[in-house]
Amino acid sequence: FQHSATVKSHRHRQQLSRQYAVPEKSIDGAKYEVLLDWVKSNGGEINNKITIQKSSQGSGYGAFTNGEVKEGEIIFEIPRKACFTLEAALNDDKFGKAFKNLIEKAGPGGNTVVMAGYMAKERLLGKKDATGTSAWSAYFDTLPWERGINNQEHVLFWQEEKIEELLTGSTCYVEAKSLRDEVGLATSIMNKVLGPSIRVARGEDVDEGGFNINRMLPWMAKPPTPEEPPEGFPEAMKGAFVCLLTRAFQDEKEDGNDDEEKLVPLLDMLQHSDTPNVRHAMRKADGTVEVRARCDIPTGTELFNQYRSEEEETMPYSRFFTRFGFVPGISEDMENLLRDKSSIFYPQKAEI
Ligand SMILES: C[S@@+](CC[C@H](N)C(=O)[O-])C[C@H]1O[C@@H](n2cnc3c(N)ncnc32)[C@H](O)[C@@H]1O
């Protein structure tokens, strides 16, 4: 009986993992060629000993050396204009002013909301434009806008029922819920700022009230009200938040202070390790981000950045998971660990 119970639970587990495993989407390697060309056309310098391949950690992609790199050698240099910064959002011709007002009202918490809104708008309208596309599209096409792109996992991508099922009672629950609520709030605030223009750019009709023949004739499709977000907008906001949470970092500045968080193309292809082999800093003169080897790096080595120190008391592994979608050093399926009530996520019960 015990044996069949075990088999059953094993089968059940397999079914569940099939149901819940991150759906890996096939990777089009050409997108990285486009990215490298885009970085270079923006004035970036890339060491020719660097390649992008499947990472040795987890199942996403990462960067590797295909030649020996000496300590201090430049790995890449990314100019400020190729970095996705708050400044870029605030300089947007059409929405920069509205973004500034929002930050004035919301305080510094508004920075991420504005960056996410600007990203979502560029993603949606850039895609829509048949000729020019967004200036960011070569870069944005490499980002995890949906669960499973480069095997990206994140609690923002989960359905509510999965949060309840897997996280209730865990140390992630409260933070995962409040993060999801904040993204929901940010989406409705940004919808007010961006929604109508996205609709206009798409040539959509909006029900502004007043006389409208479409509302009077029941057999005609009703146009949406201005409060309803444009199609794809909530998903784009969610994707933007996942990108910012998992890929935006602060650089060291020459004065020893940290710069604000921003997305740096290529630096954001590096996986995390608590013993990184690169360092990154922002040049004061022109804001260029320099990524250099911390030590001699042999051929065929994966390059690692340290997202956050694993020693920080404010960064337990459960928080790593809520923010970055992975737990350092753990290759097992996260959902199985959560179902098994792993001590990473569940406080240890006292032994009786
Ligand atoms: C800055 S991105 C790194 C590039 C990303 N792997 C890609 O393919 O685009 C951060 C994401 O990579 C994955 N990741 C980074 N370091 C990892 C590690 N040490 N183990 C497992 N996954 C890791 C996580 O999904 C994380 O959210």
Commentary on this structure:
The chain has 352 residues and is α/β, with parallel strands linked by helices. It has two domains: 35-82 and 264-307, SET domain (Beta-clip-like, Beta Complex); 84-263, no CATH class. It is built from twelve helices and nine strands. The protein has helices at 2-20, 30-41, 86-90, 96-106, 110-128, 137-140, 160-167, 173-201, 213-216, 233-247, 317-324, 334-339; strands at residues 45-46, 50-54, 61-65, 74-78, 252-253, 271-272, 278-282, 289-293, 304-305. The strands form three sheets. A five-stranded mixed β-sheet has the order 1-4-8-7-5, with helices on one face. The longest helix has 29 residues, at 173-201. Bound molecules: S-adenosylmethionine. Residues 55, 57-58, 60-62, 150, 152, 246-247, 268-269, 271-272, 324-326, 328 line the site of S-adenosylmethionine (SAM).
Largest sheet: 5 strands, mixed
Mean pLDDT value: 87
- Residue windows where pLDDT falls under 50 for at least 5 positions: 1-8
Terminal CA distance reads: 28 Å
What structural class do the secondary elements suggest?
alpha/beta
Small-molecule binders: S-adenosylmethionine
Record field, number of beta strands: 9
- What's the structural domain tally? 2
Q: How many individual helices?
A: 12
Give the helix level as a range of percent: 25-40%
> Strand-residue fraction?
5-15%
Order of helices and strands: HHEEEEHHHHHHHHEEEEEHH
Strand order of the largest sheet: 1-4-8-7-5
Radius of gyration: 23 Å
Q: Given the C-alpha coordinates, what overall shape results?
A: globular
